[in-house]
Amino acid sequence: MARTPAVEHSFAAACPLPVGPGPSPCGAGAVDADVVGAVLRTARAVLTERVAQASEIDASFAEELAGQVRDFTLEGGKRLRPRLLWWGMRACGAGDATSTAAALRLGVALELIQTCALIHDDVMDHSRLRRGKPAVHIGLAASAGLSPESERGSAFGTSAAVLAGDLALVWADDTVAETALPTPVRRRVGAIWRSMRTEMVAGQFLDLHGQVAGDSSAARALRTACLKSALYSVERPLLLGAALADADERTTAALRLAGRSAGIAFQLRDDLLGVFGDPGLTGKPSGDDIREGKPTYLLAVARERAGAADDEKALAVLGRAVGNPDVTEDDLGNVRDVLEATGARAHVEREAEHLGEEAVRRLGEAVDIGSYGGRQLLGLVRAVSGGRSNPSPTAPADEPHGHDGRTADQVLTTAEGGHSR
Length: 421
Known about the structure:
There is one protein chain. The chain is mostly helical. It has two domains: 23-180, Farnesyl Diphosphate Synthase (Orthogonal Bundle); 185-421, Farnesyl Diphosphate Synthase, CATH 1.10.600.10. Helix content is 72%, strand content 1%. The protein is built from 19 helices and two strands. The protein has helices at residues 5-14, 28-33, 35-57, 59-75, 80-91, 97-125, 136-143, 151-177, 183-210, 218-244, 249-276, 279-282, 288-292, 297-308, 312-321, 329-341, 344-366, 372-385, 408-415, and strands spanning 129-130, 133-134. Strands 1-2 form a two-stranded antiparallel ribbon. Strand 1 and strand 2 form a beta hairpin. The longest helix has 29 residues, at 97-125. The radius of gyration is 22 Å and the shape is globular. The two termini are 41 Å apart.
């Protein structure tokens, strides 16, 4: 239930969130009541300071670029990563003043690295919309008085957006570096953070490379999904929370598997939404993955199944549409028909479902899901993994482990590049 302005005011007054890196006067229980609100207030404080620092360098830089990064970070998103971090920490038993303040600041850093990823992703994908609004590169061109459609406007908007994403990453790193942490915890947090940044870039590269390279296999697509989304969206935030709680190796290992399973399920469902989703709900045009020739697992499975069945018609439909920027709505409809007819949609839905079940099982090995923090984390992991929403009408009920009888563990092994866990 939404809080009234009076409740919002009373919560903010009871829980003042400092800009600085030290302990918070706010108790963990107060943040429990409104994690998103606490992260947002911390983000406003941190970003206000960052923009003020930018204004000391140059007024136009602060207003036109730093301000865009601030506004984009504050305006949208579900704050998924900070919530996973918070409830991962709470489920592992932490919640003192130092860990509370650190979790909120690291949550802001996660939002900033997400800002970097989304801005750069929209530039690389030539996407015009993000969260139902003009993408940052479009907005930057317009704010400079240029038409985003013109060569000059497009070049300026693209270049400025690259800088905006870079600035978000710089701010994210600064926020982590300035957060007060005990030395052993700082080492753990630093190692996770460094791995996450590199994995995110590697995943984005594989996504780009897959659009021009010959390897369009389902295994490669699953590996890309793991690197590009699952690790930095779910697994790494959970591990940051565990690190703040100084969780032991057994707990950390189980949380890692829970996060990876949920994260891959999350990306598989996102791929489905990219083709079958309602643009009014997703905030992005449906079919962009097809136009851009994205190496998604969904499309890879469809190709493999059509090839195995010698379905030349289906392969021809995919060949004409995937990677064609001028694809028509009729072409997109034909691709959706192929995804249904080959069973690719049903297969991806099933594998996402099994991965979600694996995530819950692993979570139960990691934390006490009967505790308050454990229950909250369980609900969030289930929400991330997703339930079946408008499932494919062609999905058979007698395939217990997905395509070719694969278990969730085998799917994870494929996503990890074939390495045993």
